[in-house]
Recover the amino acids of this structure.
């Protein structure tokens, strides 16, 4: 019964989120996502209350209310940070920095290697640091979050070299964010080398897209 309830939640969540995913920059979409967080949180709270022995009306209602508040707060918090990150990205070339809302509680920031590193180097370009300073200001705003920094390369060079370069670049971004005040215990870094291309490595344009660092912000 509990598993069936969770399955229902998943279905409702997908239906609601698909209905408000039309335009991430639209203010109405922000409101809708926050509302979805509250509704889904309320459903989760009610189901958990009923499936953990708290079946009295009072306790079930309390579970619904608590879940709705938590879900709504997560949605609103992520909406605010997504909007700020998009404003930062808008100040740069669209190919240099992209912001994408992957799930209600996950935002991904993709930074091209061309804008942030010299060829075969893992030290940040000085001209990119002001942008990363602004990103760090947004990431400082919530203690209840995890930040995962992932480096990627194209397929030029050996697998071992690309893996090491992707790790060093992710580490460089992570260390810089920490130096700007983002809590160290919230950040993890990893390299994926050439294993997760976004485009074909057979063209120069595709290889450019594949050389990147991604920052995943997730609400806990």
């Amino acid at each position: 019964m509990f598993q069936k309830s969770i399955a229902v939640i998943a279905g409702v969540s997908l239906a609601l989120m698909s209905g408000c995913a039309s335009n991430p920059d639209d203010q109405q979409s922000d409101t809708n996502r926050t509302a979805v967080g509250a509704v889904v949180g309320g459903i989760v709270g009610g189901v958990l209350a009923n499936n953990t022995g708290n079946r009295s009306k009072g306790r079930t209602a309390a579970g619904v209310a608590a879940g709705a508040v938590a879900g709504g707060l997560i949605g609103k918090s992520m909406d605010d940070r997504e909007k700020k990150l998009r404003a930062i990205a808008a100040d740069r070339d669209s190919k240099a920095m992209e912001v994408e809302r992957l799930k209600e509680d996950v935002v991904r920031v993709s930074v091209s290697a061309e804008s942030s590193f010299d060829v075969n180097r893992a030290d940040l370009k000085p001209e990119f640091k002001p942008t990363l300073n602004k990103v760090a200001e947004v990431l400082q705003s919530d203690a209840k979050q995890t930040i995962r920094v992932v480096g990627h390369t194209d397929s030029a060079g050996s697998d071992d070299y690309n893996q090491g370069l992707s790790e060093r670049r992710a580490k460089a971004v992570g260390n810089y964010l920490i130096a700007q005040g983002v809590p160290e215990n919230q950040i993890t870094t990893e390299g994926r080398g050439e294993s997760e291309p976004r485009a074909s490595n057979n063209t120069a344009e595709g290889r450019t897209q594949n050389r990147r660092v991604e920052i995943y912000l997730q609400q806990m």
User: Anything to note?
Assistant: The CA atoms of residues 98 and 110 lie 5 Å apart.
